[in-house]
Amino acid sequence: IERTLSIIKPDATTRNLTGKINAKFEDAGLRIVAQKRIQLTKAQAGEFYKVHAERPFYDELTTFMASAPVVVQVLEGESAIAKNREVMGATNPADAAPGTIRAEFAESVGENSVHGSDAPETAKEEIAYFFSGLELV
Ligand code: ATP
Ligand code: MG
Questions:
Q1: Catalytic hit among 3, 24, 83, 115
Q2: CA 67 – CA 82 distance, rounded (Å)
Q3: Which atom of ligand 1 is nearest to the CA of 112?
Q4: How close is the Cα of 132 to the center of ligand 2, in Å?
Q5: DSSP string for residues in 61-98
Q6: Residue of the nearest CA to atom 19 in ligand 1?
Q7: Is-above-0.95 flag for pTM?
Q8: Does residue 112 sit in helix, strand or coil?
Q9: What value of ipTM does the predicted structure carry?
């Protein structure tokens, strides 16, 4: 059993898509074991996405992530990291497979509704960035 960090991004929270997105996770066999709505500062968004600091879209990305509340959550299941990324679909909604969250809900490559950890080490780091041990059962 594996855990991964998911973020429902500002474009989705502002359109009241949290429930529809969570239904996709649960239908895929992912259990939501922790969840909270928070507002990131631009600095916190920048720290979270620091691997992209040198990319041309970094400023746009961190401004967007701080533009409205997000829902951060821990998803658990068999191969949760890969399964979550499958349910999310490709980064660019134009390339996302039908039925995926990004195909159905994303507005653009930047405002693409969800984030999911990409490997076991990043999942562990990203979960610890948002959740204390006491919040995880
Ligand atoms: P995430 O890390 O958010 O789960 P991802 O792993 O599919 O998404 P990354 O390559 O890690 O994609 O990019 C991180 C985020 O940066 C993307 O989800 C998207 O919001 C934004 N992004 C990526 N490429 C672009 C781009 N060309 N223009 C604008 N924003 C982009
Ligand atoms: Mg990524």
A1: 115
A2: 28
A3: 20
A4: 22
A5: HHHHHTSS-EEEEEEEETTHHHHHHHHH--SSGGGSPT
A6: 110
A7: yes
A8: coil
A9: 0.94
